[in-house]
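ok new one. same drill as before - structure tokens go in, u give me an amino acid for every spot. 218 of them this time. try not to just spam alanines like last time pls lmao
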């Protein structure tokens, strides 16, 4: 199953103007006019698009149109560059994160990721799995944390009791580039009794903890 789509927030200084203007109902036939700003863009941003796998290309295609519309209303111009990643990159060049993709991501102002993974590549070796490309991207960009919000809007559908779930608005901040994700040493070996063992290392540097603290509470 493909990993969930990433979300990128674009902050603008002024509220977005109405997208549609409707004529009075008394006039026939009714028509819809689209109003967009015609002023010259005052800001320009480069965005690397990583459609990825599964529903990712469809999500990114729509997101691109949304950003273009929002930008036209607010005097912002987005320059997009689409690059392969995940299973699509494996099929194309044989690796989940091509060097060209990481290089483009580093040079851009933002990265918009669709979805990663699928049943087609589940039996690949670890270094050839689509998800490995996601970890390599996080490490390469030093994306130190991810913010996920949980709001129980469908309380009656929750497995939690209604009185527990109702009104919950929870923000989860997760560290991404330290700890057991990238800790070393790791691997397989044999203990003193001759038994096969596997091991990973949970390790954090001081600067990683400080950055995460200020990203969360600062």
């Amino acid at each position: 199953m493909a990993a969930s789509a990433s979300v990128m927030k674009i902050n603008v200084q002024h509220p977005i103007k109405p997208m549609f203007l409707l004529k009075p109902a008394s006039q026939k036939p009714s028509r819809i006019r689209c109003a967009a700003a015609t002023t010259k863009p005052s800001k320009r941003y480069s965005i690397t698009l990583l459609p990825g796998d599964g529903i990712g290309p469809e999500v990114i295609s729509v997101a691109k149109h949304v950003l273009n519309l929002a930008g036209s209303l607010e005097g912002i111009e987005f320059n997009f560059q689409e690059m392969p990643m995940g299973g699509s990159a494996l099929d194309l060049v044989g690796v989940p994160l091509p060097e060209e993709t990481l290089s483009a991501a580093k040079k851009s102002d933002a990265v918009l990721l669709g979805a990663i993974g699928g049943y087609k590549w589940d039996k690949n070796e670890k270094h050839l799995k689509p998800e490995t490309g996601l970890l390599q991207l996080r490490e390469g960009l030093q994306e130190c944390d991810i913010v996920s919000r949980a709001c129980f809007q469908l309380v009656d559908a929750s497995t939690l009791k209604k009185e527990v779930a109702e009104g919950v608005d929870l923000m989860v901040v997760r560290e991404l580039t330290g700890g057991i994700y990238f800790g070393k040493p790791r691997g397989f070996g044999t203990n003193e009794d001759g038994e096969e063992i596997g091991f990973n290392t949970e390790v954090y540097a001081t600067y990683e903890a400080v950055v995460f603290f200020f990203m969360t509470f600062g």
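The longest helix spans residues 56-74. and btw The two ends are 35 Å apart (CA to CA).
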